[in-house]
Amino acid sequence: MSNNNHSTVVTDDKAQGLTQLTYIDRRTTAQFMGVNEKFLATRLTDGPKRLRVGSKILYRLPDVETCMKQQEVTP
Fold first, then answer.
1. Helix, strand, or coil here: 52?
2. Alpha carbons 28 and 19: distance in angstroms, whole number
3. Quick one: residue 34, left, alpha or beta (phi over 0 = left, psi -120 to 50 = alpha)?
4. How crowded is residue 72: how many other Cβ atoms within 10 Å of its Cβ?
5. Which of 40, 71, 45 shows the shortest CA–CA distance to 57?
6. How much is the CA Rg of the chain, to the nearest whole Å?
7. 50-68 average pLDDT score
8. Per-residue pLDDT tens for 16-57?
9. CA 29 distance to own-chain centroid
């Protein structure tokens, strides 16, 4: 009898790799955007969406890119 449950078990190493590709910390986000970390900490309403995990703040790279595109200035 075949099991039709297609759930996938994610190992710790695989989970860390996925997380590192999807989420970046405040320092890396600030470097990517060309701003300092304090700037990001104060941009609570018009900055990129963020996720708090315990005391750590993380940003999804697509959200950071979207935020940057919204800040584009046309000549």
1. strand
2. 14
3. left
4. 6
5. 40
6. 17
7. 92
8. 665 556 789 999 999 999 999 999 989 888 889 999 999 999
9. 8
Q: Give the length of the chain.
A: 75
Question: What's the confidence (pLDDT) of residue 38?
Answer: 93
Q: Can you tell me whether residue 68 is helix, strand or coil?
A: helix
Burial call 61-71: b when 16+ CB within 10 Å, e when fewer:
eebbeebeeee
What's the confidence (pLDDT) of residue 44? 81
What does each C-alpha distance from 46 to 15, 33, 54, 73 come to in angstroms?
A: 30, 14, 22, 16
pLDDT computed for residue 60 by the predictor: 92
**Do 23 and 59 contact (CB within 8 A), yes or no?**
yes
Dihedral angle computed from the Cα positions of residues 47, 51, 52 and 57, in that order, rounded to the nearest 10 degrees: -60
